[in-house]
Design a protein that fits this description.
The chain has 496 residues and is α/β, with parallel strands linked by helices. Helix content is 24%, strand content 29%. The structure holds beta-D-galactopyranose.
């Protein structure tokens, strides 16, 4: 066949491919009208440098205003960056307004100055699930730039976390140094902060990291001070080689599990900036019961996730009993997200989760109030993945200020496995996830809200952003294989 004859076939292939991808997209196209997204509450310690980016979507340019901005804070009206310091403890309520050529939007924002940070789960990116040991400054910057260019930052995504493989040797005075892939950590931190992004880094409480690089053992204070100097906002501390020390010490008490994490926390809390503390020890000794007591803002509850249904659903659907331990400032962490192009090294591939499995993944992690850390190459985001990550009504469930993890309100263990999760929200409404764990469609005509202890009301389909009607009790549903329906039930005020 001649090249010219092949051309129409190629165009046909492209059209079919686009139709296939677009038919899987449930999130309605983004409006050009301004909308304020992301966290409505933000915690900061007295006198810590504050950096808060107002997340706002809509046609650019957008202008930002804040009424009631307390003395000590400044707003950049072009970028929506709030910076400064507050020394007095208390709740500072302010009104944020964003406007563009088409209109404006307002929302309240509360900055809480006190001992707690991470009042909503962190949302951002981590290098591990994509680049693994092949991470470099250039790759990190590329995803950071894409977080801005593709608009993720406008929906509340803001952490950029470098995982393992940045570490070099220690200098003669013990100061940790970077390897050649990260020539200038302070420069990287400054670059991120100037754009409203936060900077995360990885270390280990043992002598080595999981990849065998240098860990922070016996250098905890020195390393945390170095990190603070680089402008680090987030530290992940990964157990791995600490097992060697643990075994040598022959102490298997709970205190022995806590010891290395408390030591690291002591070094973090004396720094002159707020640092999110992410404890990673895969759930040993039911870490969810004591993570808060070692100062952790989140604790990994499981081993490493992979981009397969088996891995994602095994992890995701086994978090339900930890719901009492999640709260503002302290989150259960079922590991990072596996959507987009992942690969843990040089060769990336599109996630092996089907589109419905990805809806399940994002819905479940949102209901669980879990940290949302993307593990894909953001520069290579496709339209489907972008639509999955920019549905504000879904992300609002994760970022709800009440900070509750969903409870599992129904679990059918018989032949037809379907599970229901309900998350109480600040405004009195409830987010409801109805999950089909089978590999074929399931239909039900008789889901009773009252039997699950839930009240009826107006039901909104959050992925489609559409009200579907008022239901007092019984729901009829049809859920695709490994898929989900994510609803918000709002009480109807009959008096109106
Ligand atoms: C694992 C950890 C991963 C990643 C990796 C780096 O133990 O669970 O998330 O950080 O180490 O070596």
């Amino acid at each position: 066949m001649k090249r010219t004859q092949l051309f129409p076939l190629f165009i046909l292939f492209l059209i079919c491919h686009c139709i296939k991808i677009n038919s899987q997209i449930l999130t309605p196209p983004l409006s050009k009208l301004p909308r304020i997204n992301g966290a409505k509450v933000f915690g900061v310690r007295p006198n810590s440098p504050l950096l808060f980016k107002i997340a706002a979507a809509g046609e650019k340019p957008i202008k930002y205003e804040v009424k009631g901005l307390p003395n000590g804070l400044q707003l950049n009206t072009e970028t929506g960056l709030i910076t400064g310091k507050l020394s007095k403890r208390g709740d500072y309520l302010m009104q944020v307004k964003v406007s563009n050529s088409l209109g404006n939007a307002e929302r309240s924002l509360t900055i809480k100055v006190g001992d707690k940070i991470a009042l909503t789960p962190p949302m951002g990116w981590n290098s591990w699930n994509c680049w693994g040991r092949d991470v470099s400054k250039a790759k990190v910057l590329s995803s950071a730039q894409a977080m801005i260019d593709k608009g993720l930052i406008d929906h509340g995504w803001n952490y950029i976390n470098v995982d393992d493989a940045w570490e070099g040797q220690r200098a003669a005075d013990g100061t940790i140094q970077t390897n050649d892939s990260f020539p200038d950590m302070k420069g990287l931190g400054d670059w991120l902060h100037a754009r409203g992004l936060k900077f995360g880094i990885y270390t280990a409480p043992g002598p080595k990291t999981c990849l065998g690089f240098i860990g922070s053992y016996q250098h905890e204070l020195q390393d945390m001070t170095t990190f603070a100097g680089w402008g680090v906002d987030y530290v992940k501390s990964d157990w791995c080689s600490y097992s060697g020390i643990f075994d040598q010490e022959k102490d298997t008490s709970l205190a022995a599990y806590k010891k290395p994490y408390l030591k690291m926390y002591d070094a973090i809390k004396v720094q002159n900036r707020d640092i999110y503390y992410s404890v990673c020890q895969y759930g040993m000794r039911e870490v969810w019961k004591w993570g808060e007591s070692v100062g952790a803002n989140s604790w990994r509850t499981t081993g490493d996730i992979e981009d397969s249904w088996e891995s994602m659903h095994e992890i995701g659907f086994n978090q339900y009993f930890m719901y009492p331990y999640a709260k503002p400032g302290h989150w259960n962490d079922p590991d990072m997200l596996v959507v987009g192009n992942v690969g843990w090294g040089k060769n990336l591939h599109p996630t092996r989760l089907t589109p419905d499995e990805q809806y399940t993944h994002i819905s479940l992690w949102s209901l669980l109030a879990a940290p949302l850390l993307l593990g894909c190459d953001l520069a290579a985001l496709d339209d489907f993945t972008l639509s999955l990550l920019t549905n504000d009504e879904v992300l609002d469930i994760n970022q709800d200020p009440l900070g509750k993890q969903a409870r599992r309100v129904y679990c059918n263990r018989s032949r037809y496995k379907f599970h229901l999760y309900a998350k109480e929200l600040e405004d009195g409404s409830v987010a409801l996830g109805i999950f089909n764990l089978m590999n074929y469609n399931l239909s039900y005509n008789d889901i009773s809200l009252s039997q699950m202890g839930l009240k009826g009301g107006m039901i909104r389909d959050l992925w489609r952003q559409k009200d579907i009607g008022v239901f007092d009790d019984i729901l009829k549903v049809n859920i695709p294989a490994h898929g989900v329906l994510l609803y918000r039930i709002t009480k109807v005020d009959n008096k109106k």
